[in-house]
Every structure is written in structure tokens, then in C-alpha cells.
Amino acid sequence: MSDVVKQKEIICVICPNSCTVTVKQLKSGELVMEGQGCKRGEQYSRDEFLDPKRTLATTVRIRNAFIPLLPVRTSVPVPKNKLNEILDVLARIEVKAPIKCGDVILENVLGLSSNIIATRSLDVDLCYKIACEFHG
Ligand code: SF4
Question: 55 CA to middle of ligand 1, Å?
């Protein structure tokens, strides 16, 4: 009988070789790998098998800017299985111009030690400025 309790094929994205790494987890918990071309790919495949993480890039609503959405991303990669929860949180957020690229929009999202940061600057829209001055 096989000692393998879980098996996954992972494409390593660290370099253009794109090695296909087969990761097998044995009953003992030990991981056995085949197909990796180097140590970095071995570490990548291990992390991807045990705790896959991603950098999330999306948008949040912004008021008073010349476009309605501000591009943002997580400051560090977050667990892949938390991406939808983070998107739900961000869907309820609205910020106000002006925003500078790199500004923290939300600290420590879901307690994951990752901030949500702006990836572009957006100034107050000129039309909004003029309207404010006109209406006092
Ligand atoms: S395993 Fe090594 S050689 Fe293969 S794609 Fe990953 S980094 Fe490149």
C-alpha cells in the first residue's frame, strides 16, 4: 500500500524554466519532491504545497478623484485561502483623494500582518475643486 497521503503538481514560477515539481506528502508528514531543477524551486514548491501565498492587487472606491477606483495591493503576500475574505473587506472601503502612491489604506488586514497600500497617486479632481470653490 502507498505511503502517500497527498500529492500535487506545482509549476515553479521562480525562473523561466517553469519546472513541473511533483510534491508527495507521506504518512509520516515528510515531503518528497521530483522535478525541481534547483534548491530555490524546492523551497518554492514546499511553501506552495504547505501554505500557498499571493500578493493581492485590486482596487477600492475613491471619492473626489478624476477616476472612481484606486489601485491597491497587499504589502506582503497573504494566504491564498484568505483572498476572497480580503476582497469582501475592500469592497466596503471608500477612500478620499488626495492619495499618494504607497499610502496605507488599511493596516494589518484581517490580522494577517499585511497592509493594503495604494499603488498610484490620485489628486483631487480639478472639477471637484472648482465646484467646491464655486459653492463655497
Ligand atoms: S525549480 Fe529552479 S530551475 Fe526550475 S523553474 Fe524553479 S527556479 Fe527555475
Answer: 20
Q: Which atom of ligand 1 is nearest to the CA of 42?
A: 1
Helix (H) or strand (E) holding 117: strand 116-118
Mean pLDDT of successive 10-residue stretches along the chain, which has 136 residues: 90 97 96 97 96 97 95 97 98 97 98 98 82 68
The C-alpha angle with vertex 5 and arms to 17 and 78, in degrees rounded to 5, equals 55
From atom 6 of ligand 1, which residue's Cα is the shortest distance away?
Answer: 41
Q: What is the pTM of this model?
A: 0.81
Domains in the chain: ranges and CATH = 4-50 (no CATH), 57-135 (3.10.530.10)
